[in-house]
Amino acid sequence: MDSSTDRIANPWGPRTPYAPGTPWPARTDTHLAEGVTEGDVERWVRSASILHSNGDALDIAVRDGRIVGVRGRAVDRVNRGRLGPKDLYGWQANHSPDRLTRPLVRENGRLVESDWDTAMERITARTKGLLDERGPGAVGFYTTGQLFLEEYYTLALIAHVGIRTNHLDGNTRLCTATAAEALKETFGSDGQPGSYEDVDHADTIALFGHNVAETQTVLWMRMLDRLEGSDPPRLLCVDPRYTPVAQRADVHLAPRPGTNVALLNALLHEIIRTGRTDRAYIDAHTVGFDELAARVEECTPKWAAEICDVPAAQIERAAELLGGARRLLSTVLQGVYQSHQASAAAVQVNNLHLIRGMLGRPGCGLLQMNGQPTAENTRECGANGDLPGFRNWQNDQHVAELAEIWNVEPDAIPHYGPPTHAMQIFRYAEQGSLGMLWITGTNPAVSLPELARIRSILAQERLFVVVQDLFLTETAQLADVVLPAATWGEKTGTFTNTDRTVHLSEKAVEPPGEARSDLDIFLDFAARMDFRDKDGGPLIGWRDPRGAFAAWQRCSAGRPCDYTGLSYDKLRHGSGIQWPCTEDAPDGTARLYTDGITYAHPDACESYGKDMVTGATVTPVEYRSLNPDGKAVIKAAEYLPPHEDASPEYPLQLITGRTVYHFHTRTKTGRAPELNAAAPDVWAEISPAEAAAQGLADGDLVQVTTPRGAMRARLRTTAIRDGVVFVPFHYGYWDTPQGHRPPDDRPGRAANETTITDWDPLSKQPLFKTAAARVTLVARRDTRRGTDTDGTGTAGSGS
To answer: Where is this region: Disordered (predicted)?
Structure first.
């Protein structure tokens, strides 16, 4: 890394402009511990980023058995050597002195150190007891988007067949469940159609609710380098905040939160009205266009302007930009996924590409983005409750295939109904039907909505909570058993990013103390439970990552996410290969749907789809009638008002989100000195007009209140649209005196103290961008003394 570049002040580093259709130039970013030079590094061990979804390839620097830095891999297709701030600095969390190093068990209300046998026997005994007394529905699993493929697949087999529970989901439900649902609704199967390389070819890039500059910094570097090169692409940004993306956009639309479907229907209206559709593509590869055209016929820009509070002329400009594109790349993320009518809105972005024929060619890409480094693996391996290999739980042949692979009877695989989503799992725990919840690598006591409710659920004596993590998180502090896990750099496995690129992450150092890899923990549990196949042999026939990968290859064979052409050795000699990778496509597959729609046929599809309003499952008969030939389905959606809107008592709309320096609940990034110093505490953003109306100023301590609760934060006035308050969701309590909860006498600092327990009817993704709120003054900031006028300190110590 250029020592003259401050990658905190400038997260994206220097520019390397390039022209359309040419390769993205390489730029190698490196950061080593103070006093360490490249000559001091004993080994470089290959891996990729674990702190966002971009999949940046990097090598881990090792000296004296410790990680001492990272270096971007210049030959990699994803990042061409570049690293973002979380990549460069986040590795330091591995060495944090408060890592969990021994199992903990609850004795007399307190967590105390124990040994592995004691901890695992407690888990096994409780599991067996619940299975005997109440059956599989009493046991649930809630996992993450940060494990390795091999670990997800093992967990999926344990849950689906070992326990036979439908109660299995990941925290990917909070960030990218809508991505999966939108792809299934349109294409019959999950799997991103596009590639990051489409940035190199696109003449128009549209970002819908995707602050790529902060959430995927290296992908934004790629876009910035195109913008700085010759013949740059035109840029459309849809976001209520004036983000770095909005600052570079040719058109920036800032709609009222919760109105995305109205806006997208107006854009579709204009493209159809002006004849910018590709009728040949529509006729050859889709069904449902006439219904869409009828649905949006009255959805004029003027109509949408009234709903979205965006000028009609701006909507027309955006439609002109989209309609005039020859090579359109669209990306979608949380501004759509965590908002009202999430799946319906994401599907309308798919529709934009279908009616314009913008798929399967360089520059014509669609990326329903992920938020986590291994969210794609969660979905493809079935750790989100779906059947592994993108198989359809309603298709008896798919279930039979899986049963044959696992050597069990089909009835051993729960497929009597849809998998249980995370929000329902916690509701079952609240109601008492769930007696055990095993939480792996995630922190719902900060990340789920309405935290007072979540804390009360996890604290119930009747619920046995297992937490498997690196640190004593807010969630772990409420557990009955805590298992110390190894993390990235301390174990071996593969993980797959948003554009289907698979990387191998090798073990570089030993985990601290007695910490074990998640795979080893799951295998230990399976052995103690003595899970068996139908012939009496062990249900799980592997004992290491390579064996798990080989088993997954067999499971993925012939499915959209086919890994049969990959191997650890191949990934060691290459750097990032996109699935499907097969004998026929040994170098991977850059884009899906280059020659029609592949997996939408009724016999092959992962899903028959859902009703766009109620989320009711479409039956196999209905799907066969609608789509007998397996084309892409153009699904229209009617705009419906949000469930909770602004009112005189709560005049603002609250949206939460991510920031460039932190990941999720800061369990890792908050322990990296540079990242923590860059954003040490929570804040709230409102527009200057909103601040002036209440007499508020930058630095004031304010309270954000909703019908569910309140939190406190420092105020920042920014170019956000009027009527909206933004709060980053990363901040909890592990680094405060209270540890796992807000103080007794005043509101806390976690954004999710205030968010609503509500979810999208199709994807079941919680809605973090729909709450009604008000902002009030707690204490003025004394700019002369750096304190509040009432003597209160910072938002963190004052909350």
So the answer is: 1-28, 779-799
